[in-house]
């Protein structure tokens, strides 16, 4: 029994890590439908304190506007992935983000360093994101004036 539980935990951790990587890859490819497919229908994305949260039902169309109108290119890199499994079908993670953005309007390239705090649920289609919170540790020429902080003491 212990071996089966350990194997399931390792498999779940890898599936969640793959989900985080897929989010970055699909965002950078300008694939809003692909990004939205990684979330549950009731999911919430909170990118910053100054704009409304993005909700599951509107996710693809809302993300498409930014990908289409704001970014000419982007590159998101995650590291320091820490996953906490909460029972068999719920989990949360914290991972660090290093992101570069090229803007369509010719503004200087924007840089963001921070982290994602995510929550997950196992579904019939595998693990999906139920909540994504972006916290900023620092930016250079980034398009958002304010970010959620990382809670640095």
Task: Summarize the structure in words.
This protein is of the alpha+beta class. It has one domain: Roll (Nuclear Transport Factor 2, Chain: A), CATH 3.10.450.50. The chain contains three helices and six strands, in the order ααββαββββ. A six-stranded mixed β-sheet has the order 2-1-6-5-4-3. β5 (110-123) and β6 form a beta hairpin. The longest helix is centred in the first third of the chain and has 27 residues, at 2-28. The mean pLDDT is 96. This is Ketosteroid isomerase-like protein. GO terms for molecular function: isomerase activity. InterPro entries: NTF2-like_dom_sf, SnoaL-like.
Round the mean pLDDT to the nearest integer and report it: 96
Helix content: 25-40%
> What Rg is obtained from the alpha carbons, in whole angstroms?
16 Å
- The percentage of residues in β strands lies in over 45%
Q: Which segments are poorly predicted (pLDDT under 50) over 5 or more consecutive residues?
A: none
Report the end-to-end length measured between terminal Cα atoms: 42 Å
Protein name: Ketosteroid isomerase-like protein
InterPro entries: NTF2-like_dom_sf, SnoaL-like
Organism: Chromatocurvus halotolerans
Keywords: Isomerase
